[in-house]
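INTERNAL AUDIT FORM
Audit reference: QA-55
Scope: verify that the stored structure record matches its stored sequence.
Auditor: D.O.
Record contents follow.
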Amino acid sequence: MLQNLSRFGSLLVAFGLFTTLAVAAARPIDSLIGAERAFSALSVAKGMRAAFLTYLADDAVVFRPGPINGKQSWLVRRDVPGVLEWAPEFVELSGAGDLGFSTGPWMYRASANAKEDHGHFVTVWRRNARGAWEVALDCGTSHPRPEHGPREVKVREGPGHAPPDSNAWKRSGFEVGAGMGRGGASIGVGTGAGVSVGSGGLGLGVGLFNAGVRSRADYEYRRTAHEKNQLMAAERTLTWHARKSAWERAFREVSAGDLRTDLDGALPVLGPDAAAAAFQGQPREATWEYRGNGVAKSWDLGYAYGLMIARARGAARPDTGAFAHLWRKDDTGQWRMVIAWESPFSKRK
């Protein structure tokens, strides 16, 4: 009898372990990690062109060196010889499970005996209408060999986000927000009215969430427009402080504590202070030209990208580079920068 109970207990332990593993494997963020790894595995097995054409969305953005349509870029390119592989070391998923970030090391070998090249990638993923993950934006940097390459790196996950409230559109709400920008005043009327006036200075945003909202779809459309406006206000806060004060103040105002900064030629650094130090050599008198942005359906993750045109004092020609900023909402509802990526164009001779 005791032997049978012992066996029964062992079965229960095994069943519990199996159930725990099954639940863990079913976590939504695991599908994002799996998509990134499958993307890399296809690159190793079939080549870069096949992998990128498989995983890039039709409107995906890549940088060559400025932002262009990635799918069209790879359609007209021949396959690149050699092997490119990568792995995620940091991932974050929206509460709606429709948008996610991934970043980590990559390694390229032109041939079996060739010297390895190294760098880091940053990818924005989104689910398509079929529920499959596809790449919305992809960029990267080159740098010396990191401590941990694609085969050694371990994944760290960002904070979890709650799913969106499906009944939020039925309730009234009121929101006031402020932003900094370039010159003049900025007023943003939020989700309810969906109006934004001005492009800089010290701004005030007011939103009546249920003003004229006719349906859930209408609410989501207006809320998305409002959140994009708030995200871009955070971008203007960054640029305003960079020009008027210093990089330290700029990153302190808008960054998350775990901000990751990827600048071409340097290993990634963590934290706002490290970001400010990394940007010390960059001219603060710059113009940021935004080419696009996006937010999750739960309005907790977002991104913006474009060109930064800077003219160093006394320089005859401006320096141009591409940038991408990835954002998350904090517990107070403020947009905070999670990843800052920048890559300068090759200087003209």
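Auditor finding: record pair retrieved intact. The domain at 28-157 is CATH 3.10.450.50 (Nuclear Transport Factor 2; Chain: A,).
Action required: none
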